Amino acid sequence: PLQRSPLDRLMGRWTLDTSPAYVVMDLMARVLSPYDLNPLGFNPLRTILTDSINFGQLARAPIRLFITATNVRTGRGRIFRNAEITADVLLASACLPTMFQAIEIDGDPYWDGGYAGNPTLTPLVRESDAHDTILVQINPRERLGRPRTASEVLDRLNEISFNSPLMKELRMIALLRQVADPGHGEGARWAGMRMHRIMSDALADFGASSKLNAEWEFLSLLKEEGRKSADAFLAAHGKDIGKHSTADIDVLLADC
């Protein structure tokens, strides 16, 4: 696993920007593709997923699960439902094209679903009886300052690219809530949808390269930050669930 540089450890930073191994890997990813570096397409995560998840039981589970992957050929997102979910589907949904070979499903190559939907919210409205959607965001909405180095520019560009599908879908939902017929059918689902959001501003302090930091201490810190954010949300808005939205997505229409 990648490790922080001694300087970053000394200063208590979780970034990998000055880690020699990360710098080398980042440079190689700009010159060589996963097909050059890993021609056999070996991915140890496939074995872990196969050993850890009972996909047959998942197919029969009463809780609906929706996984999105991006079709490389068409550029469109494909939503996989319980009975369709396999280890390959999960690998495709997290397949970063600079790190892994595209995952082939039904004859088509797939990349990370974040390029098309991050996450895809539409099936949560159309295929669910629930009227509340709680969105847990792991990418910071904003970053203070201006990116200046090449790595900072690319990192911020990637964040914007991954946030863009979500912002577009939330804007669409806000519009549909205003114009949909609230009387019956699908219109009633859109008009009655309540949105909530859980996120932490602390994520902006970690830097984009920290997403490759697998140190147990850092993972534990993220877990605690997640619990803290969830507790803060429940304390502030727990009683609002089932009554009204706590995330103002109508403000997104002002940017149109």
Commentary on this structure:
The chain has helices spanning about 5-10, 20-30, 35, 45-50, 55-60, 85-95, 120-125, 150-180, 185-190, 215-235, and strands at about 65-70, 75-80, 105, 110, 130-135, 195-200. Helix 4 packs across helix 6 (about 85-95). The protein starts with 5 loop residues before the first helix and ends in a 19-residue tail after the last helix. The strands form two sheets. A four-stranded antiparallel β-sheet has the order 2-1-4-3, with helices on one face. Strands 5-6 form a two-stranded parallel sheet. The relative contact order is 0.12. A hairpin with a 5-residue loop joins strand 1 (about 65-70) and strand 2 (about 75-80). It is globular and about 60 Å long. The chain is α+β, with helices and mostly antiparallel strands and about 260 residues long.
